[in-house]
Amino acid sequence: MADKHYLDWSTVTELVDKLVEQIRGRKYDALLAITRGGMIPACLISEKLDMRNILVASVMFYSGVEKTLERPIFLQFPADPYLKGSKLLVVDDIWDSGKTAMAVRERIIEVNGLPEVAVLHYKPSKSRFLEVRPDFAAAETDEWIVYPWEPEER
Fold first, then answer.
1. Predicted structure pTM score
2. Sign, Cα dihedral of 102, 105, 110, 114
3. Is 152 part of a structural domain of the chain?
4. What are 112-153's pLDDT values in tens digits?
5. Burial level of 111, CB count in 10 A (0-12/13-18/19+)?
6. Which residues make beta-bridge pairs with 64?
7. Residue-by-residue DSSP string for 67-87
């Protein structure tokens, strides 16, 4: 098992600032936060870019410990009229396998929305999608990242 890399809040702020620099000047109709990991980065980005239209997507690929599902279960997702023809900034904390971000991205594209994906960390060696990567990533890593909002004993 890989060593865990624990991030502090100042590191998260630096990563968000890197994303904001990549995104600044682009226009979006809404920001879509992927729960749960993308909620805090999305909030920080929305504050820095003064984005007030924030949507939420709750996607599940796990049915229990070590049990992954092939197809996602969308526990919560914006209705199609909010997505159709809209340019959306999709925010998550990490792109590991990429399954979650791609499921959200594909669902938006299905209704003629225009998604761009932003993550704090991108793990190219773990991604199942060699032809697609996040549109914006603050850092690339192979480390096991533990964010300060995750409830884990140190």
1. 0.91
2. negative
3. no
4. 999 999 999 999 999 999 899 999 999 999 999 999 999 865
5. middle
6. 67
7. EEEEEEEEEE---HHHHTT-E
